Structures are given as C-alpha cells and as structure tokens.
# Entry
Amino acid sequence: MSRIIDIISPIYQDLIEKCGRRKISINLDFQDLSIKVEDDETVATFFSTEIKRALKNCEAGDKITLSQSSSANGIRFSVKNSAKTPLDAETADKLREKGYEVRSRFGYDTIISLTIAS
# Structure
C-alpha cells in the first residue's frame, strides 16, 4: 500500500521535464497526497498511460492537469488536457470498456478518469 505522493512524484518529475521542453503547462490538483492506495500499480499505470496520450495530443501552449478527489464512492484520479483535438470515438469506447470515465468534445478539454475504492 503506497501513498499517492509516492506514486505521483516520479511521474510528475518526468512530466515536468517533457512539458518544459514542449512549452506545455502542468497543473496538479490533489486533495490529499497522503492518502494510501491499495492498488498502486493500477494508479501508476493509469497516470503513465494517460499522460502519454495527453502529451501526444498537446501542442505548445496547451495544459495538462493531474487531479485526485475523494468521495463516498472512492478515490477519483483524472488526467485532463486542453488539446484541441478530441479523442476519436473508438479510443473513447475502449477506455470506457476498461471502466474509465471519458469526456472529450471538440472545443473542450479531454478528461479521462479512474475511480477506485478507498
């Protein structure tokens, strides 16, 4: 069982370097970095995969936000990007099949979220 800070810290450090070179802004929006997560591998894989997808779609001037929020339903992790190109329908459907929440519309941000039991 790992704390969120232990999972996100190395991912964030790598993201800072990549975004700095490409002039992409980064935001962190975490409610509590000290919360422990049982399935740390799932969370780390989610962030790594979705950050790669966001970086692929973003251009200079875009923004990537990593977030976490807690509720009675569990802990929700999200990767949001301001890329102008939305996800294609096939990719969005595959992500939904994995149990992710997907919001991606032309002219709006793309947000991909994973909710796990707390």
